[in-house]
Amino acid sequence: MNIETIRFKNNRLLILDQTLLPHKQEYRTLKDLSQVIEAIKSLRVRGAPAIGIVAAYGLAIHALNLKALKKLDFVALKNAAQQLKQARPTAVNLKWAIDRQMAVIENLQNDQDEMVSALIHEAKTIHDEDRETCDKIGSYGDALIADGFNILTHCNTGFLATGGIGTALGIVYKAAENHKKVHVFVDETRPVGQGARLTFWELNQAGIPATLITDNMAGSLMKEGKVDIVITGADRIAANGDTANKIGTYSLAVLAKAHNIPFYIAAPYSTFDLNIDSGQQIPIEQRPKEEVLQFWNIPSNDSYQVYNPAFDVTPGDLINGIITEFGIIKKPFEKNIINVPKQFNKGDAT
Ligand SMILES: CSC[C@H]1O[C@H](OP(=O)(O)O)[C@H](O)[C@@H]1O
């Protein structure tokens, strides 16, 4: 796939504007901090790893702009970092990437040029690492995919959501690359339609067989025995394996359990938040009511009640395993998640 989701060249940050897909492929230059924050909030760029990467570049762009105005100092960058972290509360990759950026300039506060080049370099490193991480997740996850499998997935977890081939969808790409005949049931993923607009588009671009379904069809497909495995992405994973992901993921996990279908999460280790013990502590983003109303062309009204959480939390006991760049983490998650970097050497997928 040679479509670039995020491009940083000659100190310019461009993103493929995902709010226009699949109808238009248009790049948008993000020239300053407010444009980066707007792009993240409005889902022009979205997907846990992708928003972390763009936020990291965004802080570097902000440092360049401040330097040109002779206003660059550590405190100004700390304020900007806080604003970026608040752009979307659930995906921990955003906080993780920004904290990484702030850590690299912690001891460079007296040298503006050093701070700028360190921020640019670290953002590029985060981007390159994610590209490699996606490849590893794809390879480990491919071990779960048999020839002829029907895979059901939710939301978008492909190259549009990451710095590489993707997480859950990256596994589909790897399986296809390894000449496995796979087919994907794509949940449309209301209300924003990341599945219908983005995943369905990615898979058709790649020539991988895909069938678009509405979210309420998943259960009957499973009952008819048409789904071999469910794999989704994640936005934040607690130390006990409880996982926040796009709204509707929990329903899929319950349905998969009821039909004895394997349910896996695919995510980079940067999506784990070991500061929280369980999913109850994961902040869930509440999004504007208009996202639901506009689908039916219902004009917004202050008196209308609309419930629109962007994510839900799937308890670890409904998850068969978590596919990461270190391998597939199995239960007991409480024990195995914290030991991941030590426990898994390359190729130790279990
Ligand atoms: C690899 S992307 C992870 C995650 O991000 C998406 O959320 P959003 O489209 O709101 O950014 C979705 O939950 C994906 O599973």
Automatic annotation (TrEMBL):
<protein>
    <recommendedName>
        <fullName>Methylthioribose-1-phosphate isomerase</fullName>
        <ecNumber>5.3.1.23</ecNumber>
    </recommendedName>
</protein>
<dbReference type="InterPro" id="IPR005251">
    <property type="entry name" value="IF-M1Pi"/>
</dbReference>
<keyword id="KW-0413">Isomerase</keyword>
<feature type="binding site">
    <location>
        <position position="194"/>
    </location>
    <ligand>
        <name>substrate</name>
    </ligand>
</feature>
<dbReference type="InterPro" id="IPR011559">
    <property type="entry name" value="Initiation_fac_2B_a/b/d"/>
</dbReference>
<keyword id="KW-0486">Methionine biosynthesis</keyword>
<feature type="site" description="Transition state stabilizer">
    <location>
        <position position="155"/>
    </location>
</feature>
<dbReference type="InterPro" id="IPR042529">
    <property type="entry name" value="IF_2B-like_C"/>
</dbReference>
<keyword id="KW-0028">Amino-acid biosynthesis</keyword>
<dbReference type="InterPro" id="IPR027363">
    <property type="entry name" value="M1Pi_N"/>
</dbReference>
<dbReference type="GO" id="GO:0019509">
    <property type="term" value="P:L-methionine salvage from methylthioadenosine"/>
</dbReference>
<dbReference type="GO" id="GO:0046523">
    <property type="term" value="F:S-methyl-5-thioribose-1-phosphate isomerase activity"/>
</dbReference>
<feature type="active site" description="Proton donor">
    <location>
        <position position="235"/>
    </location>
</feature>
<comment type="function">
    <text>Catalyzes the interconversion of methylthioribose-1-phosphate (MTR-1-P) into methylthioribulose-1-phosphate (MTRu-1-P).</text>
</comment>
<dbReference type="InterPro" id="IPR000649">
    <property type="entry name" value="IF-2B-related"/>
</dbReference>
<feature type="binding site">
    <location>
        <begin position="46"/>
        <end position="48"/>
    </location>
    <ligand>
        <name>substrate</name>
    </ligand>
</feature>
<comment type="similarity">
    <text>Belongs to the EIF-2B alpha/beta/delta subunits family. MtnA subfamily.</text>
</comment>
<feature type="binding site">
    <location>
        <position position="88"/>
    </location>
    <ligand>
        <name>substrate</name>
    </ligand>
</feature>
<feature type="binding site">
    <location>
        <begin position="245"/>
        <end position="246"/>
    </location>
    <ligand>
        <name>substrate</name>
    </ligand>
</feature>
<dbReference type="InterPro" id="IPR037171">
    <property type="entry name" value="NagB/RpiA_transferase-like"/>
</dbReference>
<comment type="pathway">
    <text>Amino-acid biosynthesis; L-methionine biosynthesis via salvage pathway; L-methionine from S-methyl-5-thio-alpha-D-ribose 1-phosphate: step 1/6.</text>
</comment>
<dbReference type="Pfam" id="PF01008">
    <property type="entry name" value="IF-2B"/>
</dbReference>
